[in-house]
Amino acid sequence: xxxxxxxxxxxxxxxxxxxxxxxxxxxxxxxxxxxxxxxxxxxxxxxxxxxxxxxxxxxxxxxxxxxxxxxxxxxxxxxxxxxxxxxxxxxxxxxxxxxxxxxxxxxxxxxxxxxxxxxxxxxxxxxxxxxxxxxxxxxxxxxxxxxxxxxxxxxxxxxxxxxxxxxxxxxxxxxxxxxxxxxxxxxxxxxxxxxxxxxxxxxxxxxxxxxxxxxxxxxxxxxxxxxxxx
Length: 230
Description:
The protein is largely without helices or strands. The protein contains three helices and four strands.
């Protein structure tokens, strides 16, 4: 769970704002004393990869690859920084649920939200998709690869990038052998002084067994090959 700091802290130590909260899950997204009341139109959080995958299968859909996710997030704008254009706040208007102020202690709430925002709170992109930036990170099916191992790290060209589960493990924690998937989109905790990953090209690794208060998912429906040829 995210825990807002009381003052500026060392940004190289994420334990200054993250803590383990037993009992936090998708039914109790802000800890064991919370519920889903008032959050029915918010994105689901505290969902590990296998949970998201199981839901997608139950719904008759799938999770996107990194390339599919990024293509959808760009909304037809292939050469701009954000899902909506070149300016972060065009005309002073916030286009995504992110962090304003100095992370992780000063949240100015200029976009109106401290935690997740209801789906549809911000304008859709060119494909009519909402909250492809900010709000919550979203799982993809690609195994994470370090940027140095990708031909063009800033933009996803290969679909899927694929990767290898063994190589996706975090080299900084050799005793924790948990593979990682790519998550995309940034979240309400992304701030210019720490994390500008609300850009379509941005990407982060996430251990497949781990859920957080700012990570969710979205499902896709692929057109069957037989219909593509029709």
